[in-house]
Amino acid sequence: MPARSFTVKVPATSANIGPGFDVVGLSLSLFLTVTVTVPDVPADTPFQPPTIAYEGEGTKEVPLDAYKNLMTRVALYVLRCHNVINFPSHIIMHANNEIPFGRGLGSSGAAVIAGVLLGNELGQLHLPTERLLDFALMVERHPDNVTAALVGGFVGSYLKELTPADAMAASVPLSEVLPEYPPDAGQNWGLNPPVPPLGIGHYIRFGWSPSIKAVAIIPRFELSTARARECLPTAYTRQDLVFNLQRLAVLTTALSQEPPDPNLIYEAMKDRVHQPYRRLLIPGLPEVTSSITPSTHPGLLGICLSGAGPTILALATSGFEAIAEDARKIFRSQGIEIDWKILHIVGGSSVSRM
Ligand SMILES: Nc1ncnc2c1ncn2[C@@H]1O[C@H](COP(=O)(O)OP(=O)(O)OP(=O)(O)O)[C@@H](O)[C@H]1O
Ligand SMILES: N[C@@H](CCO)C(=O)O
Questions:
Q1: Which of 107, 225, 305, 311 has most ligand 1 atoms within 8 Å of CB, for mutation?
Q2: Could you read off the pLDDT of 59-72 as tens digits, one per residue?
Q3: Keyword set for this entry (predicted)?
Q4: Residues 289, 313: one domain?
Q5: Are residues 284 and 263 in the same domain?
């Protein structure tokens, strides 16, 4: 087969947008870009595992061993589910990452989607979007980040109620989906990965007012999603459930209206399911979300925790700098420094072949 090259580009995402815990996600203009070359090597050349070069966010912590790196392990999972035992030999990857790790901007979701697209391309599998999503959901089990990263825009999703057999298949431990591969990569490991059930996730893209931009206020510390989920309760009161449902129902349409209405949106971005429990992990969170309002900051529409945090997401039509700088003062009073960026809402992931 002749040498080939392709580039996978996956956006950052912000999940929840206030009341839509594990339901809604928004794709944003920071990208994980991976360029891959599959050289044409003679069939009798000894196997050589992928070479990974990596720059940008996470460079110091990301493993460059393809059998340890999240993105390439996901690619290998997709390949192995299609009877392809290993990566093609001698592939060269170059990743450029703009998405900070563990900040609530969907870095792991982007790595998972990049991995699924990589596996699809390397194996020339031609999987449809719905099937790509099934594979992503076997790794990242809440659909909000991965769906928005894959299809782009402001997206709502749910997981189908599976048959008992499919539910069991979809809930196998992550260690079985992405096993620790042996160091002697290249030998025959056998093929028994847990193949995803069909049609796990379903989604719809909502409208988005073109005048709304996102200000990402990014504290300079990492908070893993796993830790930020451990502090959540397992049951909620009816009042809290109804509080969030009422707001989410209004929010999904309110953010599509032109001009967007701050009176509707600010209240509709409040939450009682995850933010109140995460405030202990993110000093300054309640002060930022309650003291920066449309009346104190003209142009602001609403403000919430981005994903599992610690990033704060402010949706606004203007006044971006005042919002971010006032949030900086509040965080600084807690001893926390921040960076901030104005981000645009972008389309989904792409693969371009060269
Ligand atoms: N480009 C990447 N390549 C390999 N691994 C990555 C990459 N991006 C993220 N990861 C892995 O994902 C971890 C971060 O995942 P985590 O779910 O805790 O945070 P997040 O996805 O940034 O936040 P959130 O899910 O709240 O948006 C990193 O520590 C790293 O192990
Ligand atoms: N819905 C998820 C998003 C983070 O991955 C959470 O808030 O835990």
A1: 107
A2: 999 999 999 999 99
A3: Amino-acid biosynthesis, ATP-binding, Kinase, Nucleotide-binding, Threonine biosynthesis, Transferase
A4: yes
A5: yes
